[in-house]
Amino acid sequence: MIVVKIGGGEGIEPGPLLANVAQRHAAGERLVMVHGGSHETNRVAEALGHPPQFVTGPSGRQSRYTDRATLEIFEMVYAGKVNTTMVESLQAQDVPAVGLSGVDGRLLYGRRKASVRSVENGKTKILRGDHTGTVDQVNHALLTLLLDAGYLPVISPPGMSDDGVAVNVDGDRAAGAIATALEADALVILSNVPGLLKDVSDPSSLIRHVDADRPEAVAPYVQGRMHAKLDGAVRAVQGGVGRVVLASANVPQPLDAALQGEGTVVQ
C-alpha cells in the first residue's frame, strides 16, 4: 500500500507521475494519490481580483490567510479543475480513478482554526474568519471500500471541520494522516525539489536520511514549505508508516525513483 502526494507548486509537471502511477496500478499495486494546487490557486485568485494573503505568525513562519472567498477559490481549483484533470489523465490510461475532496464523506475531518495571529511591524494582530484547519481523523473505511473494489482514490483539500464548514488543510500533513490511517508501507511526497537540502540553492547538498525520532537534527536546514513536508513525514513514521520519501516530481518515473531511495528518506 503506497500513498503518493504531488505538490502544486510552480514548475511541477504531473504527467510523469501519473504515467508511473498507471504502470504500478496495472501491476496490482494498491495506491492512493493526494495532490496540491497552490500555484494554480494563486493564479486564479489574482485573476478573480482576490489575491492570496499571507501572514507571518509569532514563530516567524508564513501561512495563508483563508477567508471564505479564498476557500471558495480553493474548492474551485483543488477539488474542481486540478482534481478532475488528474482523474481524466488516469482514466485515459485505463486507471479507474475516483476524485474526492476531503469534504466528501468527511474523508478529512478535524478542528477549525477560526483565527490566526499575524505579526505586522512588531505588533501581533488577530485575524478572524479564517477557514483553515487540522486533519485529526481520516475516513479510512471509505478509502478501503474503494481500494477493495479496484479503484484508485485521488484526494484533494479542503477538509471538513468539527463546526460543520469546509476548511483549507495542509496537503502534506493530510497525506501523512491518510498513510497512517491506511497503515501504508510507504508515503512518497513529491515536489519541485529533490528532497531536504542543506543549501536550497545546491541540489547536491541533499540530506539522504532523517531519523524520525530525532528530526531536530536537521532543523537548521528546514525552510518554508519543507516545514509541513517534514512534519507530515515524521508524524506518519511515528504513526506506523514504514517510510516516507521526500523527492522530486520532475524526474522520469518519479514514484519508482523515490521508492528506490532517490530523495530524503525518513524512517
Walk me through the structure:
The two termini are 17 Å apart. The protein has a single domain (2-53, 65-109, 136-266), classed as Carbamate kinase, CATH 3.40.1160.10. It is of the alpha/beta class. The protein contains 7 helices and 16 strands. It is globular, with a radius of gyration of 18 Å. The longest helix has 25 residues, at 68-92. Helix 2 packs across helix 3 (68-92) and helix 5 (171-181) runs parallel beside helix 6 (226-238). The strands form 4 sheets. It has an 8-stranded mixed β-sheet with strand order 5-10-2-1-13-15-16-14, with helices on both faces. The mean pLDDT is 92.
Write the layout of secondary structure elements.
Layout: E1 2-6, H1 15-26, E2 31-35, H2 38-47, E3 53-56, E4 62-65, H3 68-92, E5 97-101, E6 108-110, E7 112-120, E8 123-133, E9 137-138, H4 140-148, E10 152-156, E11 159-161, E12 166-167, H5 171-181, E13 186-191, E14 209-210, H6 226-238, E15 243-248, H7 254-259, E16 264-266
Parallel strand pairs: 1-2, 1-13, 2-10, 5-10, 6-11, 13-15, 14-16
Antiparallel strand pairs: 3-4, 6-9, 7-8, 11-12, 15-16
Helix pairs in contact: 2-3, 5-6
In short:
With 267 residues, the protein is of the alpha/beta class. It contains seven helices and 16 strands.
Features:
four-stranded mixed sheet, Carbamate kinase, single chain, 267 residues, alpha/beta, eight-stranded mixed sheet, 7 helices
Can you write the helix and strand succession as a string?
EHEHEEHEEEEEHEEEHEEHEHE
Strand count, sense and barrel status of the largest sheet are: 8 strands, mixed
Average pLDDT works out at 92
Unreliable runs: none
Give me the Rg, rounded: 18 Å
The coarse silhouette is globular
- Give me the CATH superfamily: Acetylglutamate kinase-like
- What's the CATH architecture? 3-Layer(aba) Sandwich
- What structural class do you assign from the helix and strand content? alpha/beta
Tell me the helix content.
Answer: 25-40%
Structurally, how many domains make up the residues? 1
Distance between the termini: 17 Å
Number of helices: 7
Strand count: 16
Strand order of the largest sheet: 5-10-2-1-13-15-16-14
How much of the sequence lies in strands comes to 25-35%
> What is the CATH topology classification name?
Carbamate kinase
